[in-house]
Design goal:
Helix content is 32%, strand content 12%. It is of the alpha/beta class.
Length: 365
């Protein structure tokens, strides 16, 4: 793989802002003013800043019928994610806004301040039937802008009031800011939290997921949640061949030492525009092993003898195949055996659900 000699964009995962061609959008290869300043002015470039647009959707619950995932409904308080994980499978969703899955996805964000209000009205409908709501399925509910907007906390308050079960997936220790709500929900079997730990190297993490919490902070958050009696799961996700797979055994061991009884792993997925973005990232940070990484990725996603960047098919997209995939599975099983951990199935309680009062005060009792 050829090295890209342009300097890495500080604090960002994606290294470009190409607009996808899937929807016939006008092409765009640079990020406007920021690149123009970089090329024409002396001195350091203008900082690429995060912009947040508030939107007020009419619905907040998204439903799916995928056979590959355990939940059928989700809430996303934000669109886009400032964490900037270069491998994020949700990046292509930004193309629906005529924006780049690259830099735009992590710098041009959308917040939904009325999410809790809409959710309350939805749960109050006579025909609504509860099943666990997943949060963190598309963008991280505890990304940096949650510090100011607190939309995720408001959604959790509604769910606690309605006694509605929730699952949370995050890469942030900011989840501990809502420990009071999570503890109250856990007492009624209404919540489970998964924290993704990709590596144990903070320098690598700063390149892969530049604005997510450092690995040590995520492990500390796992321990704090477990100590508070909240069901927690350590997700080694994604496992990137020849980049992060070397940390698999150590992460499992650390989880076991912290008393985390549930651990799992998810292989790298590169749907749509994520594949070229990831290749570009490799050309900046790991050009000497980029071809090796992609050859392994393509081998575990191969189908009918044809190597592919990604497998989009139901039933197989989450199940890599081939010798490399078998090796990762064997390593993970052995690591879990040594650490004395497994993978728990958290049974959340839907029987406690009570429709919330619309327009009234939260009961929180």
């Amino acid at each position: 793989m050829e090295r890209r000699f342009e300097p890495a964009i500080p604090g960002r995962g994606a290294q470009g802002a190409d607009v996808p061609t899937r929807f016939g959008l006008a092409t765009r290869e640079v990020d406007g003013d920021w690149r123009d300043h970089m090329e024409t002015l002396d001195g350091p470039p203008v900082k690429l800043r995060t912009q947040v647009t508030e939107e007020r959707p009419r619905t907040i619950l998204s439903f799916n019928q995928s056979p590959d995932i355990a939940f059928d409904r989700s809430v996303n308080a934000y669109r886009g994610c400032e964490h900037g994980c270069v491998y994020c499978f949700a990046r292509p969703t930004h193309a629906y806004h005529d924006l780049s899955p690259g830099l735009d996805f992590e710098t041009k964000l959308f917040a939904k301040p009325n999410a809790a209000e809409i959710l309350r009205a939805t749960l109050a409908k006579a025909k609504y039937r509860p099943r666990p709501i997943a949060m963190g399925t598309n963008t991280d509910p505890y990304q940096p802008i949650e510090r100011d907007y607190r939309i995720t906390r408001e959604v959790l308050e509604v769910c606690l009031d309605a006694r509605h079960p929730v699952t949370i997936t995050t890469k942030s220790d900011r989840v501990c800011d809502d420990l009071d709500l999570l503890r109250a929900m856990a007492e009624q079997r209404l919540v489970a939290v998964a924290i993704s730990v990709t590596s144990l190297d903070p320098r690598l993490s700063a390149k892969l997921e530049p604005r997510a919490a450092a690995p040590a902070k995520r492990l500390a958050a796992l321990a704090k949640l477990a100590e508070a009696g909240i069901p927690v799961h350590c997700s080694i996700a994604p496992v990137i061949p020849a980049i992060t797979d070397e940390f698999m055994e150590d992460i499992v061991q650390r989880a076991g030492q912290l008393g985390i009884g549930s651990v799992g792993w998810i292989p790298l997925r590169l749907p749509h525009e994520v594949a070229p973005l990831f290749r570009e990232w490799l050309s900046v940070h790991f050009p000497e092993r980029g071809d090796k990484v992609m050859n392994i990725v393509r081998s575990i996603r191969a189908k009918d003898g044809q190597a592919r960047d990604n497998d989009p098919d139901f039933f197989t997209r989450m199940k890599p195949t081939g010798v490399w995939a078998d090796l990762f599975r064997a390593r993970f099983r052995l690591a879990c055996k040594r650490a004395g951990v497994g993978k728990s199935k958290f049974e959340l309680d839907c029987t406690r659900f009570r429709p919330p009062a619309v327009g009234g005060q939260l009961r929180l009792l």
